[in-house]
């Protein structure tokens, strides 16, 4: 499946509230879901998720976006990695281009560095 079609299919299959719930405890507040923001130090519910529109917004740090933006940001992934992981979760097969070994090695190295930084951040917190 091509990227644009895959993105649309993922958004249809994955509910943003279900994805966000894995990381923060959401509470219903009218038509929206609220929680303390997972992206900055916050104790009050400034993080809002609109299930109908499939979007989130933080009134504190102004982070916003859709399920791809949230998942990529919370896990420290670039868009390609986010797309691949959410597609696998939604059971959607992506079209693959020809593999470039040099690029794959660079991506693997970058991912390893990113994972190390996330581990250091978690240990520091």
What does the model show?
The chain is an alpha+beta fold. The chain has one domain: DNA Primase, Chain A. Helix content is 50%, strand content 14%. It has 5 helices and 5 strands. The protein has a 5-stranded antiparallel β-sheet with strand order 1-2-3-4-5. A hairpin with a 5-residue loop joins β4 (55-58) and β5. α1 crosses α4 and α3 crosses α4. It is flat and about 50 Å long. The model has no long low-confidence stretch (mean pLDDT 88).
Q: What is the percent of helical residues?
A: 40-55%
Main sheet?
5 strands, antiparallel
Strand content: 5-15%
The main sheet orders its strands as 1-2-3-4-5
User: End-to-end distance, in Å?
Assistant: 40 Å
- Here the CATH topology equals DNA Primase, Chain A
Gyration radius, rounded: 16 Å
Number of helices: 5
User: Based on CA inertia axes, which overall geometry fits?
Assistant: flat
Average pLDDT taken over every residue: 88
Following the backbone from N to C, one meets helices and strands in this order, namely HHEEEEEHHH
Number of domains in the coordinates?
Answer: 1
- For CATH, the homologous superfamily is named as Zinc finger, CHC2-typedomain
Low-confidence stretches: none
CATH top level is: Alpha Beta
The count of β-strands is 5
């Amino acid at each position: 499946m091509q990227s644009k079609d895959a993105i649309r299919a993922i958004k249809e299959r994955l509910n943003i509230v279900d994805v966000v719930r894995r990381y923060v405890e959401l509470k219903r507040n009218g038509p929206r879901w609220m929680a303390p923001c997972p992206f900055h130090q916050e104790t009050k519910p400034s993080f809002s998720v609109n299930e109908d529109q499939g979007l989130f917004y933080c009134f504190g740090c102004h982070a916003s976006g859709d399920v791809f933006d949230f998942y990529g940001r919370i896990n420290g992934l670039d868009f390609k990695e986010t797309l691949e992981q959410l597609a696998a979760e939604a059971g959607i097969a992506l079209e693959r281009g020809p593999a470039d070994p040099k690029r794959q090695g660079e991506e693997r190295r970058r991912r390893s560095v990113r994972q190390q930084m996330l581990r250091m951040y978690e240990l520091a917190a």
